[in-house]
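Write out the 3D structure for:
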Amino acid sequence: MNNELHPVICLVEDDPIMGESLCDRFQLEGLAFDWHQTAAGAMAAIGSHPYALVISDIRLPDIEGGEMYLRLRATHRALPPFIFITGYGAIDRAVELLKAGAADYITKPFDLEQLIEKVKALTSAFAPPAGGQKLGVSQAMRKIEDMLPRLAQHASTILISGESGVGKEHVAQALDRLARKSEKCPFVPVNCGAVTESLFEAELFGYEKGAFTGAARTKKGFFEQADCGTLFLDEISELPASMQVKLLRAIQERRIVRVGGETSIALDLRLYCATNRDLKEMVELGQFREDLFYRINVIQLRIPPLRERKEDILWFARIFLDEFSAKHGGGRRMLAPRAEQAFLEYPWPGNIRELRHAIERACIVSTDATFGPEAFFGDGLTTWTPPAADGNLNAYLQECERNYIGQALLLQDGHMGHTAESLGISRKNLWEKMKKLGIAGEAG
C-alpha cells in the first residue's frame, strides 16, 4: 500500500503474524505503508522511495536490522527516522543504534497504541494538508480555516483578497468543497486578466449559433458551466469596464442571456471573486464600479502574505520537499539549518507560489539530499543574499533550536506532551528549553 502524496512507512518484519497485525492496524489508522520481509528488499526500497519512517525488527533473516541501518547510513546522506523492534535480550543493541542516530526503539511485547502514537508524531512533520483543505499552521490561517464552514453554508458571494501567490484559489476551492451539494457540481475558475476584452461577454455568458462570425454552434459560457456549483472570478480587478455593468446585472438577478439570444436563463451558483489589488482605491480612482464593488464585497477574506505568517513557511516547505522528492526522485530532501533560517528571513514577494517553484527547481537541478541556502538564492536566482553567519556559533545554534521547537509546537497544536514526544525529549526538558529560548507555550 504505497501513496507517494502522503507519508509512507517502510515496515521491515519477517514474522508474518507480527507483520500482518501491524499492517492491519496501519490500514485502520489510514497510514500508508510498504511491508518488506527481508533487509535486502527494504534497503533497495529505502534507496528509491522517500519514506517518512522506517520500522524494523532487529532480527531479520538475511541481515541484522542494525547492520542494515549502519550500511544505509554509510551510503545515504539523509535517512528517514528509524524505530527498531527488539526483544528484551537485545536492548543493549537498540541503545547502540540510538547513539548512532536511530529515532527510537520498542521492546516485545509492546503496546500497539504507544507505537501508533510514536508513528504519528514522527510522520506529522511530513504530512500534507488533510484532504487538501488545510491552509497553514499559523494563527492567521487557522482563524480563516475556522470561518470557512460557516461562510460556505451561508454566503453565496465572497471576495478573497491578497497578494499574488498567497493561495486565493486554494481558499476558494476549500470553500467550494465545503459548500458543494453534489460531486457533479463544478468549480469553474476564470482568470479575468487572461480573457480578451472583445470576447469577454461571449466567454462569460455564452452565445447562440450564428450570433457572430465563427459562431458555428451554441456554446455555454462560464456562468452556465458553473450552474449548481461555483464560479471563481480570479483577478476581478482586470475585468473590462464594459463588462462590469453586465456582470453586476448577472450577479443581482442570477440570470444571464447568451450573446445573440433572447431567452433569460436562471442560474443557481456561488460566486467567489479574488483580487490582488485594492478595489476600494480603484473605485475612488474611477477604475472600478462602486455598485459592483459593494455587490461582491458582502464578505471579504484577506489572505495575509507569507512574510506576515512566518510559521507557515517551513510547514509548506516540508510539504513541497516531500512532494517534489517523490515526483523527481532522489530520495527525501531536507533543508539545512542555514537554509531554514534563510527561508524565514527572505520576504517571499511571490508568496507560496514562489516558495513552491523554488523548491521544485532545487529538486530538479540538484541531487543533494540536504539543501543549503545557495540552492534557492544563489546563481542569480534572486537579488536577495542570505545574511552571513555572525560567527557566534552558540547564538546560531540557539536560533536553529528555537525555530525547530517552534515548528514542532505548531504541528502538535501547542500540546506540550505530544511535542516533547515528537522531539524525543521529556516534557520537563522541553519546558526548560522553551524558557531558555523565550518560546511561549501552553501546558498540555
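The chain has four domains: 8-126, 139-302, 310-377, 393-437.
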